[in-house]
Amino acid sequence: MQAAPMRIIFCAATDPQPWLEALRQEFPQAQLAVWHSGAPPADYAVVWAPPQQFFDEQTQLKAVFNMGAGVDALLKRDIAPQLPLVRLSDAGMGVQMAEYVCHALIRHTRQFDVFEAQARTGQWHEPVPLERAHYPVGILGLGVLGERVASAVAALDFPVLGWSRSPKQVAGVRSLCGMDQLPAFLAQTRVLVNLLPLTPETENILNRSTLSQLQAGAYLINVARGRHVVEEDVLALLDSGQLAGATLDVFRTEPLPPAHPFWRHPRVTVTPHIAGRTMLPETIAQIAGKVRALEAGLPIEGLVDRSRGY
Q1: Catalytic annotation, pick one of 125, 273, 277, 292
Q2: H helix or E strand, kind and range, residue 19
Q3: CA–CA separation, 9 vs 33, rounded Å?
Q4: Domain ranges across the chain
Q5: Strand, helix or coil at 159?
Q6: Would you tell me how many other CB atoms lie within 10 Å of the CB of residue 50?
Q7: Which DSSP string do the residues of 90-105 spell out, in sequence order?
Q8: Which of these CATH numbers, 3.40.430.10, 3.40.640.10, 1.10.10.10, 3.40.50.720, describes 93-270?
Q9: Residue 225 is among the residues annotated as catalytic for this protein
Q10: Using 50, 70 and 90 to split pLDDT, how confident is the model at 91?
Q11: Catalytic residue, candidates 87, 107, 165, 225
């Protein structure tokens, strides 16, 4: 008897056609569908922030592939504990994150923001150059993306520290780990880059207490999740001078409301959650490889540890 064709279902608030076409190239014999209430059961799912109804109905799934590295939206759902949840390991996001962070870092330390302001008013003034040695960069979170960012910053000859939950080794990076070493990490950091996963332990971690432990005149770059940041604390620290500025790509409410003070603050740079976009070709290639491995009974990387939240 011929085996039934593989069934793959797509559930995300984005145009499904490019994703279905790319999946069809990888699995020409598969049955592909966009999820709707009452859709037939599938073997594998490709999702981003699916509703609870999706999991209530799709009870025969062998695995769920998340279209990004952050799985906090998935972990809010009531999902069968035996169902494997798979996150992207990189899929083209690492180099984008490195570009974004290096751009924000260089813009601040080479004072390009100052020159942009001068240019708008026709001023020609050369401020005293800043020295890299005076701007140690702390990478908060040394997962796949954090390691890529840390290596890129180290290649620019900045002093680089990394902090993670468990010990990590990255060339050119002085690593600290565990909550007991977080104060030492913060005290030695002047430019803080947040790449942590969002978990109950890390939510609101960037607050008045932690950010006040950074070196005076610190700079914040957040490319992880908006709920890591206590926004009113950041605004207060910017106004006090403890923070010299911030580049923020993610926010508690997205899109960022037009009346939000971040838009108007002279030392805040806002971007619309674009630091690390999901790249379709790389993502499909990674998902396809993992589906084939699962079908062959082989282990895969990127399985979510629900106890840790990532």
Answers
A1: 273
A2: helix 17-26
A3: 5
A4: 7-91+278-295, 93-270
A5: coil
A6: 23
A7: -TTHHHHHHHHHHHHH
A8: 3.40.50.720
A9: yes
A10: confident
A11: 225
- Among residues 191, 174, 175, which one has the least CA distance to residue 132? 191
Alpha-carbon dihedral sign for residues 176, 180, 182, 184: negative
On the CB side of 298, CA atoms within 13 Å amount to 9
Does residue 273 carry a catalytic annotation?
yes
Q: How far apart are CA 232 and CA 17, in angstroms?
A: 41
Q: Would you state the pLDDT for residue 1? A: 56
Tokens of 44: 């594998």
Find out whether 158 and 137 touch, Cβ atoms under 8 Å.
yes
CA-CA-CA-CA torsion sign (207, 212, 213, 219): positive
Residues 190, 191, 192: CA angle, nearest 5 degrees: 110
Determine the Cα–Cα distance for residues 79 and 52; give it in Å rounded to an integer: 8
Amino acid letter for position 26? E
- Average the pLDDT over 57-73 and give the result: 95
What mean pLDDT comes out for the span 81-110? 96
**237 in Cβ contact with 208 (< 8 Å):** yes
Is pLDDT above 80 for 133? yes
The pLDDT of residue 306 is 94
Question: Which pLDDT does position 2 carry in this prediction?
Answer: 60
Give the relative orientation of helices 144-154 and 93-109 as an angle to the nearest 10 degrees.
40
Query: Residue 169 CB: number of other CB atoms within 10 A?
Result: 9
Instruction: List all residues 6 or more positions away from 235 whose beta carbon is below 8 Å from its beta carbon.
Output: 261, 262, 265
Q: Specify whether the CB–CB gap between 153 and 208 falls below 8 A.
A: no
Q: What global pTM score does this model have?
A: 0.93
Instruction: Please answer whether residues 9 and 31 qualify as being in contact, where contact means their C-beta atoms are separated by less than 8 angstroms.
Output: no
* CATH level 2 (architecture), domain 7-91+278-295: 3-Layer(aba) Sandwich (3.40)
CA torsion, ordered 240, 244, 249, 254, to nearest 10 deg:
20
